[in-house]
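Thread: Newbie trying to understand structure tokens

Hi all, I'm a second-year student working on a class project, and my supervisor (Dr. K.) asked me to get a predicted structure for one chain before our next meeting. I've only ever worked with sequences, so writing a 3D structure as a token string is new to me. If someone could post the tokens and maybe explain what I'm looking at, I'd be very grateful. Here's the chain:
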Amino acid sequence: MEKELMLDIRGLHASVGGKEILRGVDLTIGAGEVHAIMGPNGAGKSTLSAVLTGNPAYEVTAGSIVFKGKDLLKMPPEQRAREGIFLSFQYPVEIPGVSMVNFMRTAVNEKRAYEGKEALSATEFLKLKREKEALLGITGKMQNRAVNEGFSGGEKKKNEVFQMAMLEPCFAILDETDSGLDVDALRVVAEGFNKIRKADTSAIVITHYERLLEYIQPDYVHVLSAGRIVRSGGADLAKEIDLKGFDGIVE
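---
Reply by user tm_fold:
Sure, no problem. This is what the structure looks like when written as tokens:
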């Protein structure tokens, strides 16, 4: 049975500050598929995530992106989030003065309103919050603080996974989630993603290293170099990159 198409990128060119970064990206992702994007610094990996989420600093100069049958490039960033796109930041920002509880309740109810559902009451929200905390094996103390304020790098990444669990996106972008994490924190974050992932949840995992992909096993691995996908394969391609480096596998 053929999988439902989640994301279809054709001939994507994008620039930032007048400099072209993406130079013709083609990528198709089916529902439930995890695709890893690997490549050297400056290849365009984070630019791709920024374009998908609608960062206004990046200009799409050519190509198309269809998400769940809709023209993604016509959607403002907030609509993309409501449609089910979630970005786990490489460097999550702190929002002093905004409690995690209020932040998440507003985000969850905004998404529910977009889907035509009633807002969760305070009691219903706290019940959902406790269920997700139990699923991920995290304490509620983190959510009693301001958003990411005073969090360690590992806590910020765990908090991103918690937000993902609460919002239940259909498409997640993990932009170098392994950046700055030790082995134990990396495993906790990756296992958290695996726990909340559903059968039809699709994801792009952006990483330099094969280590993360030992925990989040991709269906496909793509090498992005100089703004283009220059090679694609299965999970074994990540192991080949680990052995040979990017120079050894890019012709």
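A couple of things are worth pointing out once you decode it. The mean pLDDT is 89. The two ends are 35 Å apart (CA to CA). Feel free to ask follow-ups in this thread.
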